[in-house]
Amino acid sequence: MEIKYISDLDEDFEKTKNNKKKPAEQKKSEKSAESKKLGNIFKTFMRMSTFGKAFVLSVLGIIIFCALLFAFISYSSSFTKIENVRPLSTDQEREFSALLNSLYPEKRTSILKELPYSVSKANLDVWAGSAILIDASNGCVLYEKNADAVIPPASIAKLFVMYIVFKDVAEGKVSLDDVVPLPERSWAVNMPSDASLMFLGQGQIVTLRELLKGLAVASGNDAALAVADYISGSTKAFVARMNEECEALGLTHTHFVEPSGYDENNLTTARELAAFCCEYIKRFPQSVEEFHSSPSIKYPLQKNLPSWQKDRGDSSAIYQKNTNPLLGVMEGCDGIKTGFIYESRYNLALTAKRNGVRYISVTMMGTGVGTKQGNAGRVHDGTEMMEWAFQSFADFNPRENLPEFYAIPSLGSKNTNGGFVKLVPAWNMPVTVPHISGPTALDDAKNVTATVNVPKFIYGGVEMGKAYGQIQYKLGDTVLETVPLVADRSYAKANPFGRMLGALVSWRL
Length: 509
Hints:
509 residues; 40% helix
């Protein structure tokens, strides 16, 4: 162990004290030396001739100018880097979408809309008292006849039942594989003699999926009652839910008093049924793929029978064809639903898809006496409208042919998006293209041109939702539609220096 005496400690203290002083003294000395150097440089500069002084100042000016120019070029070059564009946050997207909905309600929130260009009125031979035909991709009305007449939907009401089920499945409230208890009043033996039936019975084991097939294919009134009780606990509560959904969709003339469509006090219009079908297929395309395109149903199979009837095997199963007379007959037809009561006559909500283009038609108060004549009228009217639609129109889809957005430099603004603002279409739905000049409507759709007009830059602030450009869709000389390109966010003006810098950058773009 080392022992230090008092004299040694005093000596160490002095050394430490001196060491603490050294850095301060050293810094002071260094500053003094730098000052002397600068002073010497200044003295040397002052001793120079006028020419020498001018030369030095020129060199310094050139160096400073080059440095500033390099900095400016680097800054202005950032406005050419599209990768700097940042996406909107979830909250910003919600705010932007709500703003566009308020600015363009007819294009964005209305399910049905008029064609954005003028066409000659179609002269179709439609027998039904009320009819409408729409492009399912955008809701554009192509043809109508007394489409606002208020008529009972009959069994087309069952589409609303299925819509509610699919909503609850999507929200995780129920599963299509749930086994559904069958209330006594849903048994076939307790239904009216003229009701369409799936043939439910006491003690049967049936899933929600099977009941939906019974609704879609056999149009079973018994299935409608079973589903209503399972989803809402009672028919009354379920009917209230049906009417709430109609209100949410803006169907002001559609009202239900029971879920099967058997009652003539259920009311709707062809226009509102078409709007509903458009929304239904758009939200739940699996309904068409799995249910409405099914050609037939056999029920009850052995797996559905109660224990005391299992020995019957499948011999009790009743075979029923899909009630849609155009399924398997018309090219591309894959749905959707028929309906009949005496008060509505023969109704049909029909859809067909060819080459990626889908149309929906609704006919109500169809002609004929008896199912054979009624179906003949359904086939005639459905064929008349659908074949005309596929011959006369096709779709041009901007999403498949154009960029999602256009990045435009935002100059002279308090920009937090890498120097850019996105200009996006105020709406971006397919354009219904008329058959004008090509061999077919599909050929015309391929010949559509899109002219995009956007500014080189936006100066001095940006306003969310404001139109700064447009896209114009044309077929030859015919303008099909003009869509505004709007800013997806807002930026305030920059301070005077920022605006001046933005003005300088604008000369380079």
